[in-house]
Design brief:
Length: 495
């Protein structure tokens, strides 16, 4: 089940909201857990077992670390002594003895192996075997279907265990249902953002509900739904009609149009689902952190990654980049390259995703090198910002070609067309076929949505009423598009 469907909008969501709010407070979390499991099992019930197994393993790892932690110190050591021991900066001093600390490291290592192992089997095994088969033709290839959302809930479970390890078991969740709710909560289960346990731990028990919070959630959800159901689907249909078409007769102008359309689609789809997740969270009393901050206004690739998919960027920073040494120790350039390699691989099992990660990593490293060695000065003038923006968007658009097509032969062919290596050349005659008045309108609106608009919110009853009417009208328009359109892809199936 996905958000932009009639089944979710007209059946699952209203029924879940009504039952949730009539439930006694003590039962709300259990009901939300049951609803989330039902939501996930709607499409492929068998993959629910994979997620439950992941949850069960991470729960056991957390309990194991807790039992090794500060609450089980040898006699003669109190919590204050352990708290101030300060052995490694991650809180593993809470384990008290070298023996316990080594056991804790073994547990967290095992947790990493199990979680990454699950992810590898279901997401990368088929890809790995297909490539090995090129070297060993007799090798059979197992076609393993990808469970939806596995990348998101695996990373959430893994971050929970690592955080429990770092604070010596202090943040452990002893109630398995509470942990299961955190990992499987349907608003962010299949499309993110990646939520840290520490960010919502208190909310699981003490969150507040209010009419204002619920209304804000509805507004945010409808806004995200409009991004997805109207703009992302329209730009996506244009991108697919070009990028999945006949390359042999394609001109450079048409190829650029397809790449730009996909650039708009990927942002509107990703950020739209994040908006919907944040809005749904507010409806049920949760506050999730933001995931996108208008990345297409960035004037450097480094800035782009501070604005794009911030929950994933933060995850790799805290659980990969810093443990590798970050910028303080080791080879910072190698550390960054490994992070971007992992970022590419995380998105999918194809060479295009890997190259996309390395492509962005190369420019982040280049920018860092130029700044650190005084080859590039940070300028704030309009001309410098315009040049920085053009350069950044060129890198981003080319990167999205790698991301979209993923197959190396298609990528190289399409990029060749974009830069004039085709019979069509740079002629613009093909644009007339794709650029109808309707398409131009949706492209303009999509571009405008990518820009942050600062305005002072009017106050007063009249404005509140008009805002609610606008949101209602936007919701109705979303229904019209969903019902009448046969194009409504869920691009997260690859993740």
């Amino acid at each position: 089940m996905v958000f932009s469907t009639i089944v979710f909008l007209c059946m699952f969501l209203p029924i879940t909201i009504i039952l949730y709010y009539v439930m006694p407070k003590a039962l709300k979390n259990y009901f939300l857990l049951a609803a989330s499991l039902f939501f996930y099992a709607w499409g492929e019930p068998k993959y629910l077992l994979v997620m439950l197994f992941s949850i069960f393993c991470n729960y056991l790892f957390g309990i194991w670390l807790f039992r090794l932690g500060s609450r089980h110190m040898p006699s003669g050591m109190d919590a204050g002594m352990v708290e101030n021991a300060g052995t490694d900066g991650y809180g593993t001093d809470r384990y008290g003895t070298d023996r316990r600390r080594k056991k804790a490291k073994l547990v967290v290592t095992l947790a990493v192996i199990v979680n990454i192992g699950i992810l590898f089997v279901f997401k990368y095994m088929t890809f790995a075997m297909e490539n090995l088969q090129k070297l060993i033709p007799s090798l059979p290839v197992w076609q393993i279907a990808l469970p939806i959302g596995i990348s998101f809930y695996t990373f959430q479970g893994l971050s929970y265990v690592i955080d429990v390890y770092r604070d010596g078991g202090k943040s452990v969740q002893k109630n398995p249902c509470e942990l299961a709710l955190y990992i499987s909560m349907f608003p962010q289960l299949i499309a993110g953002p990646i939520v840290r346990y520490k960010d919502i731990a208190l909310q699981l028990d003490t969150r507040t509900h209010s009419t204002e919070k619920f209304a804000d959630g509805v507004t945010r959800f409808v806004t995200g739904l409009a991004k997805k159901a109207i703009l992302a689907n329209m730009t996506g249909a244009l991108a697919d009609s070009i990028m999945q078409g006949d390359f042999s007769v394609m001109s450079a102008s048409v190829a650029w149009l397809g790449a730009i359309a996909y650039t708009l689609q990927i942002y509107l789809d990703f950020s739209g689902y994040s908006d919907m997740a944040i809005g749904l969270g507010k409806m049920f009393g949760f506050t999730f952190l933001e995931n996108f901050d208008h990345p297409y206004i960035a004037t450097s690739v480094r800035e782009f990654w501070r604005r794009w998919h911030m929950s994933l960027s933060g995850w790799f920073r805290d659980y990969l980049y810093i443990p590798l040494g970050g910028s303080r120790s080791g080879n910072v350039y190698l550390n960054l390259l490994l992070v971007f390699l992992a970022t590419g691989i995380w998105h999918g099992a194809a060479w295009g995703f890997l190259l996309w990660g390395l492509w962005h990593g190369f420019f982040v490293l280049l920018e860092r090198f130029l700044v650190n060695h005084g080859k590039q000065k940070v300028r704030s003038g309009i001309a410098a910002k315009a040049f920085g923006w053009l350069y950044t968007m060129l890198v981003v658009v080319i990167g999205w070609v790698l991301f979209s097509l993923v197959q190396l032969d298609q990528v190289l062919t399409y990029l060749g067309i974009m830069f004039g290596k085709n019979a069509g050349g740079f002629h613009a005659y093909g644009l007339r076929y794709y650029l109808s008045n309707q398409t131009i309108f949706y492209l303009i609106v999509s571009v405008l949505v990518c820009i942050p608009w600062k305005w002072k919110k009017p106050e007063g009853l009249v404005f509140d009423v008009l805002q609610k009417i606008l949101i209602l009208g936007l919701l109705v328009l979303c229904f019209v598009f969903i019902i009448n359109s046969s194009y409504n892809p869920f691009i997260y199936f690859r993740f």
